[in-house]
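User: Can you fold this complex?
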Amino acid sequence: MTDVTDRQQLNYIAAQAADARVNLELETEGMTLNIGPQHPATHGTLRIVAKLDGEQVIAADPVMGYMHRGYEKLTEVRTYPQVTTLINRIDWLGSFANEVPFILAAEQLMEVEAPPRAQWIRTILFEMSRIANVVLFLGDVAVQVGAVTPAFFAFRDREHILNQIEAVTGGRFHPNFDRIGGLKDDLPAGWVAETKLVMKKMRRFCDEIETLVFGNEIFEARTRGIGVIPADIGLQYGLSGANIRGSGVDWDVRRDQPCGLVYDQVDWKVWTHPDGDSFSRCWVRLQETREATKIVDQLLDTIPAGPVMAKVPRIIKVPAGEAFVETENPLGVMGYYVISKGDLVPYRVKIRSASFNNMSITPWLLKGVYVPDIITILASLYFILGDIDR
Amino acid sequence: MSSTDTPTEEAVEEVPAPDTTREAMLEQLTGELGGALVGSHLEPGIDLTIRVTADAWATTAAFLKTGMGFGYFNFLSAIDWKPSPFGRDMDSQVDIALDGTEPKEPEEMTWGLAGGETRFQVFARVNDVVKHRGITIKADVPDDSLTVPTWVGTYAGANWHEREAWEMFGITFAEHPGLRHIYLPGEFEGNPMRKDYPLLARRVKPWPGIVDVEAMPGDDDDEDDGESSDS
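Assistant: Here's the predicted assembly.
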């Protein structure tokens, strides 16, 4: 072997030494650890098969499908209005936000535009879904490092948001409120004033969490520098939402590819964090929740009068065509690729859910971390199993 | 109605301008891919869809990523263009195959944007997060082999998406590092997302959600209303 460079030889020696240390000095033996399918850290039924060497993960392989409900197949036998009842269940913590991109895609094919008032209310409810969803994350992420109190705070304060959503839509978790051409109903009396109070409460909650969790030494020690995702790797895997903005990528579909929602009418900011570690992902979500309360506040001030429903036929047949609409959902970018052949039912709907892409990085990301960090990394990626399994 | 309602301003109607950025994208792709680019559809101001040959499926991805800045992998999936033989639409109460009647007459295949020639197509979407644009890429999957090259070498995130497309449609991705089931149990047979795969729920009982124009309340007399109306 004449053409072996010094560098290669050094690498080889280092690898030999590392092997020797593992096999001889410590006498370790590989072990397979099953995390899940039922585990408090996984927000649903997810199994992770981790191969360990001591306390270090050599390989991790998520096993999904425990909750696969075949929504893409079911959409092919459901009429367009019926589809919203299914897709509500994809991300059950921020249901309303799931309905919007599908409805927008159908509207794009039908060349229907919702009246301004409907667009405003849509955006308000969309952001309230985000708050309801992320509030739970902010409380829950502390649980993964051993603190339980913030979770109680989160459940307590989320109730205010859910009450407001319920007052409009009639549903706490599955509103099924969005319609092709607008919304089912208008806002009830007194709702605007009450929602403003709730937004104030949410900002207070964010302050509490910032002090309790983000200012906590243990939380910092467990999340800073752990699970680092470089921006280019994150883009390749199609991460979105706070996961990619936590790696310093300044991309937010709400601002950059606006579609049907009125984010251009308000003054708001896209938060990013350069570190790309677990901490930065959590931190971006905290800032986004604050920003969402500000967006809701501004929209409540400027909400226009008028109808909430455009003129659409009673029985909706969507003209043949294809449309892809993506929105910035609580978990990341959610999109629906709708193919219509002019029938009552869609011909094919591809559901591009945020968590599926976010989760796909885990085999790469978990390689080499230590067992306790699996949990904090998974928590910081923030996925909902319904969003992965669909 | 809330007290903070303010009168709305009239939305400014924009004249659809020629979409120069997407036209330039299409021009660049045509220059690079040449004969491999077999179809395209440009919807000004909305989207661009291109269709390439199966052989050029992976090279297109590599060019989009390195040559045009589409570094963001959005999704990858497949479409089955064959009309369902079960008459699976809302006009039929049950799958036709269920009640013993003869199968539906084979319909002509019609393709969507950017056309098509084969029963199966793979399609994917990538984004450029700097210039805020996206593009949909489609490719015909040859009927006799159902194989296209993998994207994993270019976009690592395509791994799971290709596993899903493989399991749901039965399309093989050549040189994929681990083509195995992702959602379904390992011993599962069949490709559920194909149009000729029966939907079991429809075989057990008729779907009750059939669309017909229901009478509005009060339009007709309800029979079981007599007792409850007593005061």
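The radius of gyration of chain A is 23 Å. Chain A has a mean pLDDT of 84.
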